[in-house]
Structure formats: C-alpha cells, structure tokens
Amino acid sequence: MSGHLVILTGAGVSAESGLGTFRDTDGIWSKFDWRELATPEAFAAKPHEVHAFYNARRKNLVTARPNAAHQALAELEAAWIARGGEFLLVTQNVDNLHETAGSERLVHMHGELSRMRCTNCHATGEAPKELSSLDTCSACGSTGTLRPHIVWFGEMPLQMELIYSQLESCNLFVSIGTSGTVYPAAGFSQVARDAGARCIEINLEETDMSPVFHEHRLGKASEAVPAFVRETLAQS
Ligand code: OAD
Ligand code: ZN
Fold it and tell me: Would you say the pTM of this structure is higher than 0.90?
C-alpha cells in the first residue's frame, strides 16, 4: 500500500470508553456551560472552578481504557507505515486513549488533559492529578500561572501548519466520531476534498458535514472502525 492517509477523531471515538461526548443529549456541554469553563476569560475570572472541572475530567482518565476503535487505528497506522504509506492521526480529544492503544503519529490539536502549561513562561509539563491556582511553576517560580494544556474557545488549536500541510497532500481522509461543528476541525474535510482526497465519514449518525464526504459509514466507532480498518488493509 502506498498513499497518504489523514484521520480526524472526535469525542465519539472515546464514547464507548466511558468518556462523555460534548453535544449529544447527555453530553458534557449539556451539563456544563462552556462559557464558564472553557475560555481564557473564564479561567481569569474563576480559576478554581475551571481547575475543578478539568481535574474531574483528568480523574476520569485513570479508569478509562481504549476501545476497539482506538486499537484498530493503532493497527492501521502500523500496517500503513510498514507498507510505505504516510499517516497522521489528528485528534480533537484531550484524553490519552489513542496513545495508550499504541498510536504514534498523533497530534492533539485541542491539547491534552494530562499536561499543563505556564501562562508566564509557557513551559509545558505533565499535570499533577489535581492542578490548582496555588501551584508554583517549577520552570519560572511563578504561582497561580499553571493552567490545563487545553485549547479553549477563542484560542488557536495546536500544530495547524502541520495539519494543513498534511490535509493538502493526503489522498484519503477519514473523520470519525466528530459532530463537525467546531472550526477549524470542521473544515478539514473540505480542505482534503479540495486537495483531491477520498473522504470517508464514520459516525453514529449524519452530521452537518456529511455532504462533504464521498462515503458514510453509520455505526458505533467500536464496530465501524475495526470493520473499516479490516477492509482497507485487505484491499491493498
Ligand atoms: P461532539 O460531542 O460535538 O460530537 C460527538 C460526535 O460523536 C457526534 O457526531 C456523535 O454522533 C458521535 N458519536 C457519539 N457516540 C459515538 C460512537 N459510539 N461511535 C461513533 N460516533 C459516535 O464532539 P467533538 O466533535 O469531538 O473542544 O467536539 C469537538 C470539540 O468541541 C471538542 O474537541 C471540544 C468540544 O468543545 C475542546 O474542548 C477545545
Ligand atoms: Zn512558568
């Protein structure tokens, strides 16, 4: 096999690992107001509340395990690269389930729950279980400057240059378990399509972005992704 594959994942890929999605009826943003928790302004106004929210989500990761979708994507990456292909997995998820499953060529465009960043010196590091405004940055010695290494609303996602260069040269783009409502990720399928890539969407249901894709596979990620991976590897 040769070819250049870019995969985008969203919360739907981790739903069956017990981590909530954002916009489904019982999703995280139906229980919490993102304006109060996921913006730089919210953090400046109420750091304690924002830390508590992300500390709780970080705690959920301790027991979460990758599901068959994460595992199949790690197997696909290994096989694709072994056959000489180019591969990048871009995830909007801030959990660590792709890497636990063995994915290596992975970009966390919305950051990672397991990491923190200093707003003073910009150093990043592994977050403790509980991050608080009383903590001191070990790099610069400032107190109260450590924040979750998460991209909040109004902030620029990470590694966009790499992602766009990959989208512009890929010939297969697969979007899995994302509602396609948050930009810039929601626009990736159009960029890949304009670059001539075949675009496949895997989701429980149709999304606002469905018309951009050539092929749709409706189903749970834990079933639809392994099936897609088996077929893709058998074809080549
Ligand atoms: P959403 O909650 O918006 O969408 C989840 C998608 O997954 C929906 O389209 C569901 O239909 C689908 N889904 C749910 N369960 C599934 C399953 N078992 N198998 C397959 N699909 C399933 O989540 P995202 O699109 O990831 O940003 O949201 C994008 C961003 O918005 C997140 O990264 C987060 C959020 O605000 C930040 O925190 C910065
Ligand atoms: Zn610092």
Answer: yes
